[in-house]
UniProtKB/TrEMBL annotation:
The keyword Oxidoreductase applies. Keywords: Oxidoreductase. InterPro entries: NAD(P)-bd_dom_sf, SDR, SDR_fam. It holds the Pfam family adh_short_C2. Signal peptide: none annotated. One of its GO terms (molecular function) is oxidoreductase activity. Transmembrane segments: none annotated. Belongs to the short-chain dehydrogenases/reductases (SDR) family. It comes from Tenuibacillus multivorans. This is 3-oxoacyl-[acyl-carrier protein] reductase.
Amino acid sequence: MDFNLQGKSVIVTAASKGLGKATALEFAKEGAHVLISSRNESELEKAVDEIKTESGNEQVKFVTCDITNPKQIKALVQEAVNWNGMVDVLVNNAGGPPAGTFENFEDEDWQKAFELNLLSFIRTIREVLPYMKEQQSGRIINFASSSIKQTLDNLLLSNTFRAGIVGLAKSLSQELAPHHILINTLGPGRIGTDRVAHLDQVKADEMGVSAEEVKKKSESNIPMGRYGDPAEFARVAVFLASGANTYVTGQSLVVDGGLVKAL
């Protein structure tokens, strides 16, 4: 299958590690021009070198960007345009908000989670849309969580704002379809990333057991019997963002090995 990504201009945010980095690597393997971002310059430099080495694609660059900062978002998108003349694909990604229940959070916590996990996506989409509309094509992929299908215990902030991402994407799919711009939401299940390892450790500390015990218990609830590999998630993202996808838009999909039981 030809994904038609050779030379395409791709932005992947929060891509110095984890799902963002894995997705950037898969795009690079397809010959895209990939611009990655995060707040950590040293981690970005390392990620770019590794992606270039593993993919054999030298067209990989980075921009340091705090995605809660609108000026830095504008600079990120402008760098992609200066480099490639356009933006063909935007992959919105962000770190997850703190774990906790309703009583754990004050207004400041809610505001920070809103800015990180919803408003940042709105701002990046706003910046790329003029270029996608001008060329009458584009793909937007929003990374969320399996909570887009089934809420997760002790992750109230994530449950709230990930749902907002789904509503945003579904609404935009209607508005953008006439411009041949497709937008979808992807939710990872238990994928082997630093974020999941951190959540396992938080739960382990609460229960007074080891993180490995928590992981084994989690794996026992996954029909496939294991955590996913970031590359398995990334390949789904690449398909949805590619020229091979011409009719899927406004959808929310979980990549979870069968974990989520909701329809």
